[in-house]
Amino acid sequence: MSEEPVQSKIHFHQPEISLGTELQNLVIEMSEVLILTRKEVESCLSMKRTIEAVKEAYMAFANNRVQMPPVMHLDIAKYNGEVDIKSGFVEDFGLIGTKIASGYYDNHKLGLPPGMAVIVLLDLKTSMPLAIMDGSYITAYRTGAAGAVAASVLARKNSKKVGVIGAGTQGRMQVLALREIFELEEIRVWDIEEEIGKRYATEMSDLLGIDVNYSPSREEVVRGSDIVVTVTPSRKALVMESWIEKGMHINAIGADGPGKQELDPAIVKRADKVVVDSLKQCKIIGEIQHALSQGLIQEKDIHGEIGEILIGKKVGRESENEITFFDSTGLAAQDIAAAHVVFKAAVEKGIGYSTRLMS
User: Fold this and answer.
1) For residue 74, what are the β-bridge partners?
2) Can you tell me the distance from the alpha carbon of 73 to that of 214, in angstroms, rounded to the nearest whole number?
3) Residues with Cβ < 8 Å from 283, sequence gap 6 or more?
4) pLDDT at 29
């Protein structure tokens, strides 16, 4: 084990003014940066709390208390990978946050996780760095939570059957989050790799104690479901409009980059309510990009952003027969909200490693 680094005194360059003792002590204290591993992050965050945090983030966004620049998206085709950089600030938490997240879809062949991320938190008032933490756990949980928050106001209250397209990490997180909201009785799953799909069925059945079945037919997974979840990196439609039935709610999660697509664009046109996390973001990198580019819908056809429903500005589901659709591209505000929960809990528990980057 390496020795603790020597903490040198911070020197302030201040030719004309001097900081008062109280302010200087505050700046010195804030210069301590907390570094948290995935295991430590995991000990500070539950799905229930993540759902609450994501809801807070959506509401802050709807109340214009969030600022986020466009997502920086890098395709790394040579290694079947992609990198997204999401950043912004949330006034409600007093934090600036930046996340670098990757998806390398052949990593499982090397025994490595396909998704990894790092989150950096800064103080909004001073920009002093506060924490650097593993973001893969946060990304997995906050994305799952986003689906649950949307379904809580858009799906039928008695939803029991979920069809999942994509049996990876997020296929699990979406169901774990939905379980916090609904009394689930049956899960059906499809994956392009049969072995992964069957493993999902076995593991999730044991975990949830309900029927979880793999099907080689996407149509069979979708038909009869109360909630359909798509969580793949696909660039072509996997779910067809003819499979969609009255009363269904669809969480479109996988499309979060230019060209990505999981659904027949006709589904978006047919839906009674199309809801997005951020219209500005979704029309460029979300599932709705295809329906818009093909002229099947216009921006005015979008019912609203999820935060607008949560604050009462727009209505959610109004009838049992409505087809509702949620386009989730993932907001920096969600990462900041969940990271805020982790940071506070870690400080209270006294866990993590502190150092000074500014020394």
Assistant:
1) 83
2) 32
3) 289, 292, 299
4) 55
Question: Residue 4 pLDDT more than 60?
Answer: no
> What CA–CA distance (Å, rounded) separates 165 from 207?
19
Collapsing DSSP to helix, strand or coil, 22 comes out as: helix
Contact 189, 231 (CB under 8 A): no
- Tell me what pLDDT residue 2 has: 37
Confirm whether 8 is domain-assigned.
no
> What H or E segment, with its residue span, contains residue 136?
helix 136-154
Given 86, 99, 260, 273, which residue is catalytic? 99
Mean pLDDT of 2-12: 34
State how many domains the chain has: 2
Residue 6 pLDDT > 70, yes or no?
no
Residues 129 and 170 both lie in one domain:
no
User: What percentage of residues in the chain have a pLDDT greater than 70?
Assistant: 91
Nearest to 141 by CA among 116, 176, 107, 95: 176
Compute, in degrees rounded to 10, the torsion defined by CA atoms 315, 316, 318, 322: 130
Q: Do strands 129-134 and 32-36 pair parallel, antiparallel, or not at all (unpaired)?
A: parallel
Query: Is there a catalytic annotation at residue 280?
Result: no
The per-residue pLDDT for range 79-124, each reduced to its tens digit, is: 999 999 999 999 999 999 999 999 898 998 899 988 899 999 999 9
Quick: pLDDT tens for 204-249. 999 999 999 999 999 999 999 999 999 999 999 999 999 999 999 9
Q: Which domain holds residue 64?
A: 21-138+334-356
Instruction: Please report, for the domain that includes residue 177, its CATH number.
Output: 3.40.50.720
Number of CB atoms found within 10 A of residue 106's CB = 11
- H/E stretch holding 306 reads helix 306-310
Question: 3-class DSSP state for residue 98?
Answer: strand
